[in-house]
Amino acid sequence: MSYPEPRYFGESGQVSALFRPASPQPDTGSSGNEISYVAKQKDTNGEFGLYKIDMGPKAMGAAEHFHRTISESFYVLSGEIRLYNGERWVTGGEGDFLYVPVGGLHAFQNDSDDPVSLLLLFTPGAPREEYFEKLEEYSQRSSEELKAFRIRHDQYNTTDMLDD
Question: Are 99 and 73 in contact (CB under 8 A)?
Answer without folding.
Answer: yes
